[in-house]
Design goal:
The chain has 249 residues and is an alpha/beta fold. It contains 11 helices and 8 strands. The chain binds the ligand O=C(O)c1ccccc1NCC(=O)[C@H](O)[C@H](O)COP(=O)(O)O. The site of ligand LARABZUK has 23 residues, from β4, β8 and α9.
């Protein structure tokens, strides 16, 4: 089911991809003695349409984290790791992922198209992360991919606060590719920030550290819903902001 991840995100009223990550960029423990299954259940109850699981070792993850989460939720799951080879794609399917991270800036130019094709051929949604225009221009099959702007930088292990302006600046280019699902990822630290990014026209958000640090993800999502409701005045009912911007939903 190649479109399961995208369909779930686009049909959600609060399109947050809620992430499970064992350690923050600075190395701090984020699990805080909770089981991944319990966190997944809390995210389900909060209404997150999709989950993300960081299996990358830099962030304290591993394949078992994804296995545990996949066993505990029906939601489509994004695997966040350094996916560079076909065997990583096969492994991701076996672990229960519906989408996988493809970091455009880390791959040789020739590898990006073959990796995206391999994802699509295996029924996985490519979640292609970009940080600059040159990377946006290289995304193959954009109509079948999530294209996400990462507000941090994986080259420095995502340390620091991130730059939301990067997302806001690249959004028109993302929409112009024809992706049905422009996403902003990383450094979204509060419901107010999340509302601002969705109001700008993103179809989805990826939130890790902020949700892992809150004891009540349902309150975080409820606060985002309220913030969106109070800024909905300028939007036409039923229309996503990226549709208003002239995007291709
Ligand atoms: O971005 C990558 O290339 C990457 C590779 C391998 C493992 C993790 C990777 N990224 C992790 C993230 O981007 C963040 O965990 C995610 O976007 C959430 O960020 P935050 O809300 O700031 O915790």
């Amino acid at each position: 089911m190649p479109h399961r991840f995208i369909d779930a995100l686009l049909s959600a009223d609060i399109p947050v991809i809620a992430e499970i990550k064992a350690r923050s960029s600075e190395g701090g423990d984020l699990l805080a003695h909770r089981s991944p299954q319990d966190i997944a259940a809390r995210y389900d109850r909060a209404g997150a349409p999709c989950l993300s699981v960081v299996t990358g070792r830099w962030f304290g993850g591993g394949p078992q984290l994804l296995r545990d989460v996949a066993a505990a939720t029906e939601r489509p799951i994004l695997r966040k790791d350094f996916i560079t080879r076909r065997k990583h794609i096969t492994e991701s399917v076996e672990l229960g992922a519906s989408a996988v991270l493809v970091t455009a800036g880390l791959l040789p130019k020739a590898t990006l198209p073959s990796l995206v094709s391999a994802c699509l051929g295996s029924g996985l949604t490519p979640f292609v992360e970009v940080t600059e225009q040159a990377e946006v221009d290289l995304v193959p099959h954009p109509d079948k991919c999530v294209i996400a702007v990462n507000n941090k930088n994986i080259r420095n292990r995502e340390r620091g606060g991130g730059e939301l302006d990067r997302s806001l600046g690249l959004l028109p280019s993302l929409i112009a590719t024809g992706t049905p699902c422009p996403v902003s990822a990383s450094a979204i630290d509060s419901p107010a920030t999340a509302a601002r990014v969705l109001d700008a026209g993103f179809a989805g958000l990826l939130v890790g550290t902020a949700l892992m640090r809150t004891t009540a993800p349902e309150d975080w999502v409820a606060a985002l819903r309220e913030a969106r409701d109070s800024s909905a005045g300028g939007r036409t009912t039923g229309e996503a902001p990226h549709q208003i911007l002239g995007g291709n939903p």
